[in-house]
Model the fold of this input.
Amino acid sequence: MRADARRNADALIDAATAVFATDGVDAPAKVIADRAGVGVGTLYRHFPQRSDLVVAVFQQAVEDCADAADEFAATSAPDEALSRWLQRFTGFVATKRGLAAALQSGDPAFEALPAYFIGRLGGALGGLLDSAAAAGTIRPDVDAPVLLRAVADLCHGAPDPAQSQLMVGLLVDGLRYRATA
Done:
């Protein structure tokens, strides 16, 4: 892809991320294109179907969240890196509620996303869990898919993101219970 085309695609994904967060995944294409500083034709050239744009936004958010695991691991103690990443994931879940409904719509374009989500985020979380368990700062009997599900369930039951953050903080404290260190 040419550099200008890549910039346009990235601008469209960034714009769609912001618009989806405020207006939902059914927001008008013109609103997204205007926010990206491109024409509607450019949006459809890069993302011919609405589902293509939804997939791109979701994948970018998953990648950003997964990449944060390496950043936190490089700058924090293992249990603190885990805690920081789980709070980041909590923010991810809280801001993707509209995308979750779209992903469960039955559209075939979304079929591969749950496995991608679990694989990419589960892998990132698994590394953090292994490091913290090896350091003896969390209990060793928790696996990534169970913890991802627990955080998602806590977030969906909370009335607002601040309460989600609080509940996940309590969950992290529970992971420290029966640690070996």
Remarks:
- The chain has a mean pLDDT of 91.
- The chain is about 75% helix and 0% strand.
- The longest helix spans residues 50-75.
- The domain at 1-48 is CATH 1.10.10.60 (Arc Repressor Mutant, subunit A).
